[in-house]
Specification:
This protein has no helices and five strands. The radius of gyration is 12 Å and the shape is globular.
Length: about 70
């Protein structure tokens, strides 16, 4: 895996691998907002899937510090 970087202002806070699909996910956070990313382990490319927000206030960003895949 090469060097990977989240969106500007964010740092990666969590990583999860889905063995059924072979997909590697990461959460990035700036402290004020969090985003979900898909990582390409062959190229190091990151794809921002979107912001992570809670169902109680979808427009209010949440800080994510852990991921899991089942």
């Amino acid at each position: 895996l090469g060097a990977v970087t989240p969106a500007e202002g964010e740092t990666f806070t969590a990583l999860a691998f889905d063995p059924s699909s072979g997909t590697l996910y990461a959460a990035g956070s700036s402290g004020a907002q969090s985003s979900l990313y898909r990582l390409n382990p062959d190229t190091g490319a990151t794809t921002r899937i979107g912001k992570i927000a809670g169902p109680d206030a979808p427009s209010t960003p949440k800080a994510i510090v852990g991921l899991a895949s089942d």
